[in-house]
Amino acid sequence: MTWLIAGGLAMYFEAVAIAAELRDFPGGSKALAFSIMPTIEALRIIRWPADRLDTLGGYLAYHNITLFTFFLALYLGIQGSRLIRSLEERRDIDFLLATGLARARAAWIRAAATICALLLISLGLGLGTAFALEISGEPDAMGSIITLLAAGICIVPFFGLGFLLSQYFASTRVASGTTSLIIVIIYVVGNISGKYEWLRWFEYLSPFSYANRSRPVVPGFGVDYLSWIGMSIIGLVLVAIAVRIFAHRDVNSVAGPSLHSRTSQKGRRSREIKPSTLTIDMLWRQRIGLFAWPMATTIFISVFMSMMPGVIDIWAKFDFIEQFSLSGFGESVEEQYLAMVYEILPPFLAGYVISQSSIWNAEYVQGRFHLLFSTPLSWTSLLLRRILVVMVISQTMILFSIGAVVISSEIQGSPQYNLGAFRVWAMSSLFVLAFAATNALLVLLLRGRNVTQILSVYIGAAWLVGFMAPYLDWPDWIVRLSIFDAFGHPFVDWPSSTNFSVIIGMILVGITATLILGNRMSKVD
């Protein structure tokens, strides 16, 4: 339901904004497509393909549908990783099997339900796209629905991949992280495979490329039903293999030898929960995240930095630099580009904090929350430790990212902007602290009830509002609801006093309310 509502609304508002941009651009839609194509080509590692950008269907397919397919693939891969393993972690698998249902049958039922949900999500996104095109004056209902259905069907192999990998990992988080990493690599390499002759073979391995073969929403493109059939078969084969492995292994175990499983079990036997060592224990439990989040953020920013010379040349060639200077994002071309690069950091930080909220929520659902309070531990102590862990990992992300920009700038001979980098560090740190405090309050109030979904929807909406508001003439108060607006553009300048007050207010209200309510509420329901 979250995907249907949020995705449909996002598709609608984005389409309206894009239609306005195509309509109002000097010289018309063809001039717009011609002017942005060099930049899109330079940044194809992020999003590709880009066809018929002079039409609403083509622009929407590039700007929205491509990313929706990618995020849906990540969601599906994570769902596959959690399909059975999450039940085992929560010990709910015992209740399921106590009904007399065979393990293989139970796995197939859950897999079928997930795939049906995927088809409904794809259909809902297709209907949202169709409605958006209708409102914008370029109706194409069937093209919209078929394009999004193709996207959903062709990424089924990622679900099977996640389910299969989860049989070899004792932790849902490790299985989900591994699956997500593979999906990101396939997506990124697939985007650039057409650019290099020696890499074209990779297109035949990427489910994304098969999804792109069915884009009737783009004028001049048709449907490839063989891709639908082929990807469906591959996905079901992977699911069948995973089901067979699950049916023949022990419950709460892994298929084959698992260093992770042995290490985790050994760690559980050798460590007991003590308030004095709780912070270290929290960091140890997230040792993979301590490595993965900073590395992912740093790699992504490093990729952007590697493209800086080429993009700057394109901006200079097409006289974009003067236009960007008027926007207020710095005076020199390097400063403008770095300002854009640092805009990537807040979504990564928000994603990390949401993942922490998921961990806090899971601790309550799985009973670890109650175990913690069986020790001499207060609410204040627990909250401060959680915030400290968040700040340690987020600081690693921030400093690694700034370091990547500084090193890349030095290698390329670009000027250093030390004050801008300091502002980014300071505001990013406050951003994390504000969002973490708010998340802690929500986790306390909701206690296991869809906290992650609510926060994810908010972050997605907050990110989109900043792009859509200028095109749709929305009032300023709507933009003010976005935490990204409060973050501002610190590389260029400090945020306004109002935005700064919002960040500080979120920190104070979140921490104070969590402490007051936490000490008043029962720790055991």
From TrEMBL:
Kinase listed as a keyword: no
A single Gene Ontology CC term: plasma membrane
Key words, A-Z: Membrane, Transmembrane, Transmembrane helix
MF (Gene Ontology): ABC-type transporter activity
Transmembrane feature ranges: 59-78, 111-133, 145-165, 174-194, 225-247, 290-316, 336-354, 387-407, 427-446, 453-472, 500-518
Protein name in UniProt: Unannotated protein
Organism for this UniProt entry: freshwater metagenome
